[in-house]
Amino acid sequence: MSTPAPARDAFAALVLHRRPQRARVGLTLGFVRTFAVPEIAEVLDRTGRLASAPKARAKATGAMMFALVGHGVDSPDGQRIVAELAAVHRLPGVDAELMRYVLACFTVCPVEFADGTPAEREAAAAFAADLAAALHLPPLPGPGLAETAAWMREFETARFAPSEAGRRLWHTVAPLFAARLPRRLARHAPAFAAALLDAPLRAAFALPRPPLPLRAAARLAFHLTR
């Protein structure tokens, strides 16, 4: 059974209305986290779709997730998107644990970056449970988002590793952060985006640690958006 609409609506209100730009940055960061898992990076790199049209693929990913959040997993649009996501699950090299991790990233990262309230976090966890069930995946750790986030970090400790595919994907996607920056800073998007990455991601992508002023400026620049 899917989450009741009032609970789901709290998550939808955050990512679609209250702080949509921050949520989109968070979703992009969640997408980037998956590149640090070599098995996921190899699948994404092998298809070539992200490299050939990074902006279109990133936009399509965001549109799918936010349509699911807005309309619900059981809606006609939601069922269509679930079928598309299930097709990804059938790609060679993609197993249930990898799919669970991607789902965790796409739920936890937007909420964390948008500074979701306890009610919004609870609704996000309920949404993730609905989507996992619709995709016939094992349930994510719960009952709250904190447990899912903790499992996500444990997964990363075990599975993050450098890979050529992951580095290529990062350098393909980094310029897309320009759309979320003030115009005068847009040309510095890769540097500002790298400043948002934590140490495990920087290690996977072989990136140096940005200086503290740049890290502080990046957080401020992206958090000034609604």
TrEMBL record:
Gene source species: Kitasatospora cineracea
InterPro entries from the UniProt entry: MPAB (IPR046366)
Gene Ontology MF terms in the entry: oxidoreductase activity
Source organism, top-level taxon: Bacteria
Protein name: Uncharacterized protein DUF2236
